[in-house]
Amino acid sequence: MPTDNAELEAALEGLFSSRVRVKVLIKLVAPAGARYHARELAKQTGEHFNSVWQELKHLESLGLLASEKVGNQLQYWANPAFPLLPELRRLLQRVLTQPSSWPTATTARLKAPAVRAAPATAPFVVGETD
User: Fold this and answer.
1) CA distances from 25 to 69, 102, 120, 126 (A)
2) Is residue 112 part of a domain?
3) Which helix (H) or strand (E) element contains residue 19?
4) Nearest to 61 by CA among 41, 82, 40, 43
5) For the domain that residue 33 is a member of, what is the CATH number?
6) Which residues form the domain of 88?
7) The model scores a pTM over 0.70
8) What's the Rg (C-alpha) of the chain?
9) In what order do the strands lie in the sheet with 73-78?
């Protein structure tokens, strides 16, 4: 579990580097009290089981998730002792409730200034050399 600034920074770097990780965070962290096992999360997120399982293990190693064996399943949930949990939960809830406030790659391209091409000269087009 991260305790100092360097460890918190490393935890942040590990949180946001994967599409699958973001989906897992949205399912497990955004709603308080959510508990899932890996196969159920894979089904809910539409991701492969192995990818989800790897992310669960990674997030658990950071201290963000806790797990417990219930029957023959290992269930995961957000660890309430994780120092950044309240802020992370607020961030994820904001993304879920205000998705239009986040620019997408498409809207960023649409807003990019137009680039004009310079006209080609005849020697260049024909392939003449100096």
Assistant:
1) 20, 18, 52, 57
2) no
3) helix 19-28
4) 82
5) 1.10.10.10
6) 5-99
7) no
8) 23
9) 36-37, 73-78, 65-70
Q: Is 67 a domain residue?
A: yes
CA distance 54 to 14: 13
Quick check: 64 and 80 in contact, CB under 8 A? no
Is residue 91 one of the residues assigned to a domain? Answer: yes
Residue 36: both structure tokens together: 């899932």
* Beta carbons of 77 and 88 less than 8 angstroms apart: no
Task: Give per-residue pLDDT as tens, 11-54.
Answer: 656 667 888 898 899 899 988 899 999 999 999 999 999 999 99
CA angle 46, 40, 50 (to 5 degrees): 65
Q: How many residues in the chain? A: 130
The count of structural domains within the chain is 1
β-pairing verdict for 36-37 and 65-70: unpaired
